[in-house]
Amino acid sequence: MPRKKKSQQLFHEYFKEWIELYKVGAIRPVTLQKYYMSQQKIMELAPNLTMGELNRRNYQTLLNHYALTHEKQTTMDFHHQLKSAILDAVEEGVIEKNPTRKIIIKGKAPREKKQKFLNQYELQKLFKQLNLKDTINWDWFILLVAKTGLRFSEALALTPEDFDFQNQKLTVRRTWNYKKTKGEFQPTKNESSKRKIQLDWKTAMQFSQLVKNMEPDKPIFIKGRVFNSTVNNRLKVLCSKAEIPVITIHGLRHTHASLLLFAGVSIASVARRLGHSSMTTTQETYLHIIRELENQDSDKIMRHLSTLM
């Protein structure tokens, strides 16, 4: 398309073409869906905005409208997706100046945050409520996620052959796309997500008995269509019975990481166990815990120094 016509192209049309050119086949389906949702938002908020009209003022107006119904972090994510396409448009000469420069990110007041993880005492109370039968059920799923820090889709994709009971290790090599009606294996979130997780001897022994008669290449937890809400509802019931804060399955992953950090495990080791692409992700996610530990370290340092004289 000639440059003049490109400048007359609607922004949401350009963004859609950009997604199909650079993102389709290069990112996970779940991430791709987020880009298409952003494209739908542009259509909704600025249906007549052309590339030629895309200046700093119009772009800020678009973000401001988005921010009216979204929290600041969500608005930031939306901005980052749009900015990637816009910078390519600048390079192509479709837009003369970068309209995203010095943009202000706004957002509605965040909702009251629910507790994301349990402490060790609360987790032990939860474990006492688990109905661990001789066959696989969702309570076994809850136990395994709490003991390993697996993501929901990673745990769903586990098969008997992913367990190395001799060395007490669990291999994470793929995820399960539970959002599709029939479900299917799909790649991990990133390369760092492919990892081997050490199991404690008790969990390894329990699962060796549970999966010994199962087909080696079939997911152990999948018996039909799986909904995230089904497992979260079961966890809610268990938390209520245990009289502890109600958390989600993803909250069990946070619980796992938090307990390791409080136990003195290094950030690098926790990052590898969780499958984070870098330690920065771990530090940002658990910053509040790291700061608390630093305060405890300061007290230890002062007490130690006071004994040297």
Widest β-sheet, arrangement of strands: 1-2-5
Class based on secondary structure composition and strand pairing: mainly alpha
Number of helices: 14
Query: Which geometry do the CA atoms define?
Result: globular
Summarize the amount of helix as a percent range: 40-55%
Largest beta-sheet details: 3 strands, antiparallel
- Report Rg: 24 Å
Rounded mean pLDDT is 92
Instruction: Calculate the terminal CA-CA distance, rounded to whole Å.
Output: 78 Å
Within the CATH hierarchy, at the fold level, what is the topology of the largest domain?
hpI Integrase, Chain A
Number of distinct beta strands: 5
- Quaternary: single chain
CATH architecture title of the largest domain: Orthogonal Bundle
- Assess the beta-strand content as a share of residues: under 5%
- Unreliable stretches (pLDDT < 50, length at least 5) are none
Count of discrete structural domains: 2
Look at the structure and give the CATH class of the largest domain: Mainly Alpha
Let me know the CATH homologous superfamily of the largest domain.
Intergrase catalytic core
Helix and strand element order? HHHHHHHHEEEEEHHHHHH
In a nutshell, what does this entry contain?
This protein is mainly alpha-helical and 309 residues long. The protein has 14 helices and five strands. The protein folds into two domains: 3-92, DNA polymerase, domain 1; 120-295, Orthogonal Bundle (hpI Integrase, Chain A), CATH 1.10.443.10.
